[in-house]
Amino acid sequence: MAFQAGGQRSQPRPVPESPEARAYLQDYATLLDAVPFPSVVFDHRWDVVLANTAFETLFRGVAPHPTAMPGDNFLRFVLFHPDADTVLGEHESSWCLPMLAHFAAAVERHGHDHVLQSIRRDIAQDPIMDAAYRHGLPHWIRAAGPHAVEHDGAVRPLLHPDPRWGTDCRVVGETPKTLQDMGYSRLTLVLREARRPAPGPRAGRGPRRTVSHLSVVPAPQD
């Protein structure tokens, strides 16, 4: 059994065996789908457990991919999907490097996890990405500072298919204790409305004139 608000996932993932945990996730899926912004719940592997309709809408234009769909594993999508940069603006600097930093931390904590190991093998098969992971990432973390790695609070470029949304979002981490106890995390991409151009002068009107209300009194004559 797998949960995904707003639709069906292509690759089901295991869910908690506890009936109470499954019931909680079912209710949390209902809550998630009421959120107007793209929101996703994932485990330590970045396997997606829940994703709302707004999340699906954000990525509706990406082509099918055997291993890197955003609704299956968000880390794989960011790193390996050829269409990732059509949604995630400034893809390498704003999305790939922070995700690689979180992946490195996950490997330190869960080094024998087979899913993480498979992602590491795929990184190794790309010479540019492997060099960035092994050599460029530590330098980038030192240069950019810890704040650049954190997702929560970061403002990152985003290219939404709906033109009423602007070109960036704020990433908000909001994981309640129950999800934490299950080993899950939640991220929400808070969208911003597109800036409207300032209105220009109305056609057919000349420059505005200032009218004086002072009376002119003729000077007395002799």
Outline:
The chain has 222 residues and is of the alpha+beta class.
Key descriptive features of the protein:
222 residues; alpha+beta; Beta-Lactamase; five-stranded antiparallel sheet; 39% helix; disordered N terminus
Question: Mind explaining what this structure looks like?
Answer:
By secondary structure, the protein is α+β, with helices and mostly antiparallel strands. It has one domain (19-193): 2-Layer Sandwich (Beta-Lactamase). The chain contains eight helices and five strands; from the N terminus they run H-E-E-H-H-H-H-H-H-E-E-H-E. It has helices at residues 19-33, 53-58, 74-80, 91-109, 114-124, 127-144, 146-149, 177-182, and strands spanning 39-42, 48-51, 155-157, 165-173, 185-193. It has a five-stranded antiparallel sheet. Residues 1-10 and 205-220 have low confidence and may be disordered.
Give the strand order, joined by hyphens, for the main sheet: 2-1-5-4-3
Radius of gyration: 26 Å
- At the first level of CATH, the class is Alpha Beta
How many domains, as an integer? 1
How would a textbook summarize the main sheet?
5 strands, antiparallel
- CATH topology, anyone? Beta-Lactamase
Total number of β-strand segments? 5
What is the average of the pLDDT values? 85
Protein structure class: alpha+beta
What proportion of the residues form beta strands (DSSP E)? Answer: 5-15%
Principal-axis shape equals: globular
- Determine the N-to-C terminus distance: 108 Å
How many alpha or pi helices? 8
Unreliable residue stretches: 1-10, 205-220
